Amino acid sequence: MIDRLSPCVAASASRAAAFTPRPLVAAIALLCASTANAETLQMDTLQIEDDRLNATAVIDSEEIALHQAHDLKDVFRDTPSVTVGGTTASSEMIYVRGLEDTNLNISVDGASQNGYLFHHSSSFNIEPELLKRAEVQAGPGAADNGPNALGGSIKFVTKDAQDLLEPGETFGGMVKGSTESAADAVKGTLSVYGEVAPNAGLLFSTSARNSDDYRTGGGDEEEGTGGHQRSYFGKFSLLDQGAHSLRISAEHNEDSGIYCTRPNMECQPFNNVKVDTELSRDTYTANYDYEPGSRLVDVHTNVFHTKTELDRTTVSTGDKLNADVESYGGDLNNTFRFGPEDMNNRLTLGSDYVYDESSTGSFDEKARNLALYAQHRMTLGAVDLSFGARVDDYKTEYANGETLDDTDVSPNASLNWRVGGGVELFTGYSTAVRGNKGREAILADDGVGVGETLTVEPGLEAETSRSTEVGARWKGNDLLTQRDRAGLEVTYFDTHFDNYITDETVGSETTIYNMEGIVTSKGVEARATYGIGGWDMTLGYLTMDLEDNQGETVVDDMGLGNQTGDRWSLDNRYTFVDPQMTIGWTVTAYERLTDLPDDQSERAGYATHDVYASWVPRDMQDLTLTAGIYNLFDKEYTDQNTYFLEPNDRRGITTGAITSPGRDVRLSVAYRF
Asked: What is the pLDDT of residues 360-389, one digit of tens each?
């Protein structure tokens, strides 16, 4: 029996009807994918948006390229509310204010990525080179944020060919090679793009990254961490063709290697053996927008199909295991604009649908969610208002045929008041529900094998969350000297997570049930900025308490969330106009985590330092050289976001957490043609 804790949802078209509705030269030689934009680096790439219920962090492609991101941890390294556990792409899990990604609505170009394969490994990955931006919505948010956003949402938006073409160009491309010293990794990227007709673009991108087992701080190798990542991407984009815009994309992403059975823990010869692993994802999306110029017509529609699959073969025995999650769905909405223009009334009415099927062997679990939603946004003088609701009709059919089936309403409201003098005050309340939740795919057969029993607790209810936040932001200029700039934002948040659905196996009996009581995530997130001329400094801070119904700290509860010590980040960078160069230094620190249950060990605090630089030669504007040293002082540490095995565990696996990579020197060359 595989050890486990909590579940997820998945999908399959064939059953939808039943629910109706991996030296630089070597790197360049590798076929690779992605479009690292070699344009002038822009500052202020981590922004705060005001159009959503809660503050939204937006990480754009220039920021991603500057840090030579190769996984999700790199993408979100400067985002206070987002932490990423795991040490490799195969083991990464995202947390937003402590809540795990299984409780978030994650999408790529509108395609749901909520499949839950295995609680010890990643269920989602993406090639960072493809990203135009990543939007993080902490907290349930507005009604049109989509389903299942109990802890918030993360929306990944990929690049269009038009984003990469220079003015006047009809064809272009980019080739990029990079190296990473900690894992002796090489990576190559190749992208070609062009305008095939007026307003119509095509983009093709492919990437490959190969790595060995990485070295930790001090020089030891971490077994079972080397692997191969491949990405293939194609996108057609017809933009502003009259009133019409159409984007169609296809993506294949895979990660393979000889990893540990539980890749977020150290390999052991008996209880965490090596397995030949392949994790793959195929996503297909189509997005259509119609804006004819009428204030009453602004249509957006989206359809998608995603399949995520895990294949494992135990090296020593040849035993095989396969699990997959398949999802289909779409969204259709229209935004009506009406009333006096200074009120900026925008009413969005729409419907979204998602069908998921998770399966292993001959057993599967199916879930679907059909929703109607309305969200009204408006301005009254210095006050921006947003309010709305979702009606979610959901159904989950477990492997034994029992179901969870109901309908719930989730309202929300928010307010932003521009007080004056650069000061804004904001507050919001939002709710969310999830009743379309199967178990993690790798465990879909628990309780239904020969001699086993699966029971769904009578009166099983859908999971719900409610979130309140209040805060203030300020922006100003000429504070200490002429032409300087500064900003400050502080947010208090309080999220209550109720009816968490989990399962437990005792002997041959497996029970699916609601966890008693409420899990709370509350704390303060803050961000301060200061700049003058080409210098910009950003200080980020997150303190939170993630507690269960007994008031005890929630740590390593895979599928639910993870508490860390207070997190601090400080980024300093300077951008030169001539030469066209950016240099920077970042410190990330976690305070020691001491407030833990009696059976849990304290987590050590630590700080890491990173330095980075990017340069576009004056006489070679199509060339971008980027360098960085991450974990500059070769700190030996374990990431507080990564699973920690207690000494009293009986499985015979090395206790503690897997050690993070040591000093990592990264170099990359990107050339546009």
From this structure: 877 899 999 999 999 999 999 999 999 999
Dig out the tokens for 578 from the structure.
């001539």
Strand partners of residue 305 = 284, 328
The helix/strand/coil state of 140 is coil
pLDDT band at 194; cut points 50, 70, 90:
very high
DSSP percent split of the chain into helix, strand, coil, nearest 5: 5, 55, 40
For tokens 């030579």, what's the residue? 68
DSSP letters, 80-93, are TTEEEESSSGGG-E
Q: What is the pTM of this model?
A: 0.88
How many C-beta neighbours within 10 Å does residue 424 have? 18
Maximum Cα–Cα distance for the chain, whole Å? 77
Sequence-separated (6 or more) residues with CB below 8 Å from residue 23: 179, 186
In 3D space, the residue among 124, 235, 127, 132 whose CA is nearest the CA of residue 189 turns out to be 127
- CB contact at 8 A, 228 and 271: no
Which region among 31-35, 122-126, 353-357 has the lowest average model confidence (pLDDT)? Answer: 31-35
pLDDT score for 197: 96
- According to CATH, the topology of domain 13-21+23-672 is Maltoporin; Chain A (2.40.170)
SS (H, E, C) 239-304: EEECCEEEEEEEEEEEEEEEEECCCCCCCECCCECEEEEEEEEEEEEEEEEECCCCCCCCEEEEEE
Collapsing DSSP to helix, strand or coil, 120 comes out as: coil
Given this model, what pLDDT does residue 558 score? 67
CA dist., res. 398 & res. 358, Å (int): 10
CA–CA gap between residue 454 and residue 510 (Å, rounded): 5
How many other CB atoms sit within 10 Å of the CB of residue 189?
29
CA distance linking residue 546 with residue 100, whole number of Å: 11
Task: Tell me if 112 sits within 8 A of 306, measured CB to CB.
Answer: yes
- Cβ atoms 359, 321 nearer than 8 A: no
Q: Is the pLDDT of residue 14 over 70?
A: no
DSSP helix/strand/coil, 64: helix
Residue boundaries of the structural domains of the chain: 13-21+23-672
Smallest Cα–Cα separation from 112: which of 120, 122, 101, 121?
101
Which three-class secondary structure state does DSSP give residue 510? Answer: strand
Is the Cβ–Cβ distance between 152 and 104 less than 8 Å? yes
Q: Which residue has the tokens 């200074």?
A: 342
Residue 587 CB-density burial (10 A; 0-12 exposed, 13-18 middle, 19+ buried) = middle
CA-nearest of 23, 114, 118, 111 to 558 is 118
Contacts 24+ apart (CB under 8 A), 478-481: 481/532
Model pLDDT for residues 537-549, shown as the tens digit of each residue: 999 999 999 998 8
HSE of 363 in the Cβ direction (CA atoms, 13 Å)? 20
pLDDT at 1: 36
Tally Cβ neighbours within 10 Å of residue 450.
5
